[in-house]
Specification:
Hypothetical Protein Yqey, Chain: A, domain1, mainly alpha, globular, single chain
């Protein structure tokens, strides 16, 4: 996150913040800190949601949004093993 801030990578920073929020929401829901495997599950779920959104935007013909979602998937995938 610090690297993205220092390099002024706004899109990457936004995706990282979203992922951190999703992880924090899961921790609140489960009332405990997440293990590494659980964090991976949350990130995988976020990627899966974006892939589903891509299909919807393909039907609508919104190429710009499809490209944005693909970039988000690339950023999230970098944090998976």
């Amino acid at each position: 996150m610090k690297t993205a801030m220092a390099n002024k990578e706004e899109e990457k920073l936004a995706v990282i913040k979203m992922a951190r929020a999703a992880i924090k929401n899961e921790e609140i829901e489960k009332r405990k800190d997440l293990e590494d495997g659980e964090v991976i599950e949350v990130l995988s779920r976020e990627i899966k949601e974006r892939r589903a959104e891509i299909e919807e935007y393909k039907k609508a013909g919104d190429k710009e949004m499809i490209e944005k979602l693909n970039r988000e998937i690339e950023i999230l995938t970098a944090y998976l093993p």
